[in-house]
Specification:
binds adenosine monophosphate, 334 residues, binds magnesium ion, five-stranded mixed beta sheet, alpha/beta, single chain, 20% strand, 12 strands
């Protein structure tokens, strides 16, 4: 029986989750937001530093466990914003030293993927699922093959969440922009044609962003029509490439993850595509889609159980990896 504490701090969210035998005992988080303007890495890191203790004790309280009961501390090593990652790592090392417990370092994107197991993804006879991972900084189509999570397709420029947030900021909406854009899209009157940029298995978003900004400036279109058209266009691009990855890998499962996956229209479009090709669709609940500590603890437990950990005596070996890519990680816990 193991109890793992997971720390998430790659970007806007500081989260702590506690997992015991694949069950989530607590999942507490606090996110840096702005009224206007985007995320400033140093300010987000300051937010994490100021809130970490409160979140930590709340997570312990809710899980009804004592600090000394923790068997290991898992933390997000990357990819992410360096100042934010450092806050998480320092806190992980502090707890590790204090209680002489090992550390497990985690790739944030793979944690988003592995948490799909909690809703049954990856259990089917057809083997592993294809994952459409759509978050702020990352947008990737991932599938497992020969010891690594391979990236079948991805954004060639900016992540879909950052794209939505940038457009929202331009329209005077604060961070995060995604939920406000989703609400606006529901009030639309018509679809406005936008560029459609799928290149093989990859997508490109910056050209669409420029086009949207120009359309907004022209004052010929309502913000809700642009929000709606943006969602329809970009989500179709995502679903098209995800469908091609399903066909290519022969998988019959799609797992959706990342903060943008909270969008009900994106979920609906994925569901329709899966239904049409007789594939299963998986999507964890919202608290596990956005950045959170529970997914870090969840993968931390899987790795810890396979003996993948670093002793509190060797903490100098452990560092952050702001630019770590999903396909760099050796998946030696399967
Ligand atoms: P993550 O980096 O995975 O925590 O996801 C954060 C991103 O998800 C931000 O860019 C948000 O704007 C975006 N997001 C959150 N909720 C929604 C939503 N309902 N629709 C679209 N994007 C969303
Ligand atoms: Mg994320």
């Amino acid at each position: 029986m193991t109890i793992i504490l997971g720390i998430e701090s790659t970007a806007h969210t500081f989260g702590i989750g506690i997992v015991k035998n694949s069950n989530i005992l607590s999942n507490i988080k606090k996110s840096y937001t702005t009224e206007e303007g985007g995320i400033i890495p140093i300010d987000a890191a300051k937010h994490h530093q100021e809130n970490k203790h409160e979140i930590y004790f709340e997570a312990l309280d809710e899980a009804k466990i004592k600090e000394e009961d923790i068997d290991a501390i898992a933390f997000s090593q990357g990819p992410g914003l360096a100042p934010c990652l450092l806050e998480g790592m320092r806190f992980a090392k502090e707890i590790s030293k204090k209680f002489k417990k090992p550390i497990v370092y985690i790739n944030h994107c793979i944690a988003h993927l592995e948490i799909g197991k909690i809703v049954g993804a990856g259990d089917s006879e057809a083997g592993s699922s294809v994952m459409l991972y759509v978050s702020g900084a990352n947008t990737q189509i991932i599938a497992y093959a020969s010891g690594k999570y391979r990236i079948f397709g991805e954004t060639l420029d900016i992540g879909a969440g950052n794209f939505i947030d940038t457009f929202a900021r331009y329209a005077g909406i604060g961070f995060p922009g995604g939920p406000a854009i989703e609400k606006l899209a529901k009030k639309r009157k018509k679809y406005v044609e936008l560029p459609y940029k799928v290149k093989g298995m990859d997508i490109a978003l910056s050209g669409i962003l420029t086009n949207l900004k120009q359309k907004l400036e022209s004052k010929k279109y309502s913000l809700s029509d642009l929000a709606y058209s943006m969602q329809e266009t970009v989500f179709t691009m995502l679903v098209e490439t995800a469908e091609r990855a399903l066909a290519h890998t022969g998988s019959n499962e799609l797992l959706l993850g990342g903060g943008v996956a909270c969008n009900s229209r994106l979920q609906e479009m994925c569901k329709i595509m899966c239904k049409e090709r007789d594939a299963k669709f998986f999507c964890p609940e919202k608290s596990l889609l956005v950045d959170n500590g529970a997914m870090i603890a969840f993968l931390g437990e899987i790795m810890f159980d396979k003996g993948i950990k670093v002793s509190y005596k060797n903490l100098d070996e452990v560092d952050i990896k702001p630019r770590q890519r999903t396909d760099e990680v050796d998946v030696n816990w399967k």
